Each structure stands twice: as C-alpha cells, then as structure tokens.
Amino acid sequence: MSEDDIILSELADDELVLQMHDDLYDGLKEEIEEATRILLDRGWQPYEVLTEALVEGMRIVGEDFRDGILFVPEVLLSANAMKAGMFILRPLLVETGAPKLGKMVIGTVKGDIHDIGKNLVGMMMEGAGFDVIDLGINNPVENYLAAIEEHQPDIVGMSALLTTTMPYMKVVIDTMKEKGIRDDFVVLVGGAPLNEEFGKAVGADAYCRDAAVAVETAKEYMKRRHNQAQSA
Ligand code: B1M
Fold first, then answer.
1. Are both 115 and 225 inside the same structural domain?
2. Ligand 1 atom closest to 117 (CA)
3. What spacing in Å lies between the alpha carbon of 207 and ligand 1's midpoint?
4. Share of residues in the chain with pLDDT > 90 (%)
5. Does residue 36 sit in the same domain as residue 116?
6. Does residue 1 line the site of ligand 1, with CB under 6 A?
7. How many angstroms does the Cα of residue 161 sit away from the middle of ligand 1?
8. How much is the pLDDT for 95?
9. Distance 162 CA to ligand 1 centre (A)
10. Domain end: 68, 96, 124, which one?
11. Gap between the Cα atoms of 46 and 189, Å rounded
C-alpha cells in the first residue's frame, strides 16, 4: 500500500460519499462495494446510500459522457460498479415486509440496453409491496404482450433512456389499444429524456420522474382501482 492509498473506513461520511462519486467515475467496483457497506454499517438508510452516493455519482458520469470526456467502455465500468452497490442494497430495499399491493411488469423498450434506472424502479416497487416481473432490456412489443397475458399485471412499466427509443413506448401502447386491452392496465413510463408531456402524448397513465415517484404513482393508481372495483 502506498502512502497515498485512501482508507475508505477512515473517511468521514461526507468525504466518503465524495470518494464514492470518484470511485464510481473510475469504475472501481470493489471500492464501491466496500464504501456501500461502510455507510450501511454507520447506520445510513439504503435509500440514502442509493440516491446520495450511487445515483448522484452516476449523474456526474452522465455529464462527462455527454461532454465527450468519458466514453462507452469507461461508462460501462461505472455502470458495473453501480450495479455492484445496488446488489448490496437490493435485499434491504426489497424486504420490507410490506403487504402485497399488486403486480407490475416492467422492461426497457426495444433498441435500448440501459437498465440501471429500470432495475432501481423494480427494486423500489418490490420494496413497496409489488410483485415485479422484469423483462430486462431491448423489449419488442411482443414481449410486453406475452408478459401481460402470462402474468396479468395491474401495471405495465416501460423505461427508455434514449431519445431514439422513447417513441417506441407509443408503439406498445397503440398495440395495446388495437387489442382492446389498453384500459385494463395502468401504464407508467419513465427514463431520463422523458417528461410529463411526452407521457401524455404517448397515451401513458403517468410519467414517473424517478423510482420514488413511480412507487407513489403506482400506489395511487392501485388505490383508485380498488375504489372503482368496490363501487362497481
Ligand atoms: Co448511455 N446514454 N448510451 N449508456 N447512458 C445516456 C442515456 C445519455 C443521456 C448520455 C449522454 O449523452 N449524456 C445518452 C442519450 C442521449 C439521448 O438519447 N439524447 C446516451 C447514449 C448516447 C448512449 C449510446 C448511444 C452511446 C454510444 O453507443 N455511442 C449507447 C446506447 C446503447 C443502447 O441502449 N442501444 C449507450 C450505452 C450506455 C452504456 C451501455 C455504456 C451504459 C448503460 C449500462 C446499463 O444501463 N447497464 C450507459 C449509461 C450508464 C448512461 C448514463 C451515463 C447513465 C444512465 C443511468 O444508469 N443513470 C446516461 C446519462 C444520463 O442518464 N444522464 C446515458 C442512473 C439511473 C438511476 O437513472 O436511468 O435516468 P435513470 O433512471 C431513473 C429515472 O429516469 C426513472 O427512475 C430511475 C431511478 O430514479 N426511470 C423510470 C427510469 N426508467 C423508468 C421506468 C419507469 C419509471 C421511472 O417505469 C414506470
């Protein structure tokens, strides 16, 4: 060990979080795992570690990716480091013992391989008491239809991170309309380039800015469905 080596466990919380942003930027998986565990041991809530250390770190990566300072191979390493941190947090976020609220099918749309945000939404939804069927990435409309048929979810969730793939959400919703099943499900959409207006334009029930909003929105719609069923 050289004199310059940083001992993560000796850093104060705020320094450690900044160090995690650097380590995520540098794609240092083991350091991210170690620091994630340290923050948890210090009593941080899993959601705080997720948002303040990991998601914020990835936001910084995204800026330099956009500006041509980082390239795909480097960002892939960052993504792997982030996933390693999320892997540690997952059981803590998922196993809350919340009562079952409903079922969601979620996937990233065709042409798009970004899955970190979608995975995060899945975890948070599970933590809130939803059964989640994760279709993974690059899903053509047929995959959504097959999963709808097989699992009969309450909610269909779609994720897109590219301006070139987000219009595909309309393909899925239009196909659901053609088949006469659109109104049987709550359709929620999300992903960095989307906004409220886009969600309305493609015919989704709601656009969800982040995973926490997705959970709140899903709960709200489940409450409405429950009330409708009772008054029918
Ligand atoms: Co990509 N990429 N990428 N990338 N990548 C973006 C999206 C980009 C904005 C970067 C940039 O230029 N600043 C840009 C898109 C530009 C655009 O379309 N206008 C971009 C590009 C261009 C590309 C490639 C085309 C690059 C290339 O090949 N030249 C290529 C495309 C590949 C493809 O999909 N076909 C590509 C590839 C990659 C990697 C493979 C290297 C890697 C993905 C690894 C992986 O996911 N396994 C990657 C990454 C990591 C990013 C950035 C840096 C980070 C994305 C991320 O994970 N964020 C991203 C920059 C950015 O977004 N600022 C970028 C963290 C995550 C927690 O946030 O995904 O937004 P997010 O999810 C949030 C919300 O959006 C929301 O909740 C989540 C949690 O709070 N949400 C939902 C997301 N999905 C939801 C679904 C819901 C509800 C809410 O359903 C109900």
1. yes
2. 72
3. 16
4. 90
5. no
6. no
7. 5
8. 76
9. 7
10. 96
11. 24
Residue 93 — pLDDT band, cuts 50, 70, 90? confident
Is-contact 122 107, C-beta < 8 A? no
State pLDDT tens for residues 48-63: 999 999 999 999 999 9
Whole-model pTM? 0.94
Domain end residue (candidates: 96, 126, 147): 96
Predicted local distance difference test score (pLDDT) of residue 231: 77
The answer on 91 and 124 residing in a single domain is no
How far CA 156 is from CA of 37, 74, 225, in Å, comes to 33, 32, 14
Which of 127 and 209 is assigned the larger pLDDT? 209
Q: Domain range for residue 74? A: 8-96
157 C-alpha to ligand 1 centroid (Å) = 16
Residues 25/90/146/130 CA torsion (nearest 10 deg): -130
Helix extents (H) in the chain: 13-25, 29-41, 46-48, 56-66, 72-94, 116-127, 141-151, 168-178, 196-202, 211-231
Q: Do 82 and 164 reside in the same domain of the chain?
A: no
For ligand 1, say whether the CB of 75 is within 6 Å of any of its atoms.
Answer: yes
